[in-house]
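dumping this here before i forget
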Amino acid sequence: MEGNRRWVSGDLHHPDRDPNRRQLVAQEQEPFGSILSCIDSRVPPELLFDTGLGDLYVMRTGGQALGPVVTGSVEYGPMTSGTPLIVVLGHQRCGAVKAAYESLRDGKTLPGNLQAIADALRPAYEQALREGGADPVETMARAQVTLTATDLRSNQDLAPLVEKGALAVVGAYYSLDTGEVEVLAGAPAP
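structure:
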């Protein structure tokens, strides 16, 4: 979150982005966090957290949709090297969530494999319908973050790490307007 404060203020440090760092991490890596975020080009985790080479495992899918390969990728850091943090990062004005919302609302199938994203986001759509709100797409985007973080936190392989305090799974939301990341759920105790 310190890196995000630097991003918001414009006081960027650009850490770990030089040939010395490249050589240091060339043989092995020990990222301090794993980020599951959207494919949106406006939401690059390394930039908005002001991090560098070897600092984060980053997985990106439309609307943070999960599937076996993505879940395995998220599990990799905590299960192989003890990475203590997973952040599920949604964002404002998400095109994938909007497309899924409209598809599900209108009962229209999306082309190609885009329908798989809509299908994966159905629980968030249903939660958004229950919750209501002024902007149902934003409600759905936030619901997707919390549902995905909850799924990962209760995952049979990650849950034991969460229970013993070795892993935090945090849901967060990025504002395209301000650059600020807001924690929605799962923040570890200070």
